[in-house]
Amino acid sequence: MLKTEYDVVIVGGSHAGLSAAMALGRMRRSVLICDDSRPRNQISSHANNIAGSDGVSPEKWRQQARHDLEKYKTIQLINATVHKVEKRQLQFHVELSSKEVVHARKIILAHGIQDKLPDVTGFQELWGKSVFHCPYCHGFEVQDQRLGVVGSGAYVEHMLPMILGLSKDVMVFTNGASDLSKDFVTALKKKQIPLIQSPIACLGYEGQKLQFIEFKNHPRIERDALFVGPQLPISMRVNFDKQLGLEKNEMGLYKVAEMGRTNIAGVLAAGDIVTLQQSVVNAVSSGQSAGAWATFELLSEDFHQF
Q: Where does the FAD/NAD(P)-binding domain start and stop, copy by copy (predicted)?
């Protein structure tokens, strides 16, 4: 049974949201986690670059985290989407997809982002399998293979040196006209790194394995894996910026100060919605920080209330 009043409502129950809940639960704050069971990395079979749990299944991590939270009796988790959050004086009015309404003193947003991929056959189908966004998360598994970087501008100039640390066989695909700097293009020529600016027609694949890239006006090229940059601005899975008056930066992410504090008092944000350094470890860390700050604010407010 849902209560009507909580200290904190957490929107999103994956790595950031569950970590925020644990910090709050350990300090005996009442928490409602609202999760719609659509985590960003649900298609990934493993999550890497996690000391102590390298290669863990993201879903198994969530199952274990939910199990760990069971001992904290002040925490409640429901399968629901938050449709609306409205600040009313000292509380937040939260409307759920179940038509129920709850109230909270604090809100932690941890709902994740929506990946936007090139509208080309193969990218969505191979996402998380042969097409990746993070070399730290997936690069080691494709080391010394035929790799490609898809994108343009600052992303490619930032990403290419890292991918070259994984393989000597790397090519750059801009999927059309690019805005790469002259110095970068010169460096590509000197290092004999192919730069293909033809639009991509489709990705050829078998099962979960990339086979080749088909272009609109360039010969087919065989590759084993691709790293794709984000399409800015970032697309949120849920948009609360207009409902709550939250500020975003030029990349489409929520602007946050230390500990995940947004520009709206009582609202914190954590995980992929606040940074382009998107990983399980960063989500866990920022979630825990947001939970800790919410705890501090709650207990400080109680102490100063007469």
A: 6-287
Nearest Cα to Cα of residue 106 among 259, 306, 282, 279? 259
Q: Give 35-73 pLDDT, tens digit per residue.
A: 999 988 888 888 889 989 999 999 999 999 999 999 999
Alpha helices in 37-87 (DSSP H): 58-69
CB-based contacts of 284, cutoff 8 Å, min separation 6: 15, 16, 19
Domain 123-228 in CATH 3.40.50.150? The answer is no
Q: Rounded CA gap, 231 and 277, in Å?
A: 15
- Across the range 144-166, mean pLDDT stands at 95
* Every domain of the chain and the residues it spans: 5-115+233-303, 123-228
Place of tokens 């080691």: 140
Choosing among 3.40.50.720, 3.30.930.10, 3.50.50.60, 3.40.50.2000, the CATH entry for 5-115+233-303 is: 3.50.50.60
CA dihedral (32, 233, 154, 124) positive or negative: positive
pLDDT tens digits, 73-88: 999 999 999 999 999 9
Tell me which DSSP letter residue 140 carries: G
Instruction: Find out whether 40 and 115 touch, Cβ atoms under 8 Å.
Output: yes
In tens, the pLDDT along 240-287 reads 999 999 999 999 999 999 999 999 999 999 999 999 889 999 999 999
Within this chain, domains 5-115+233-303 and 123-228 share the same CATH topology: yes
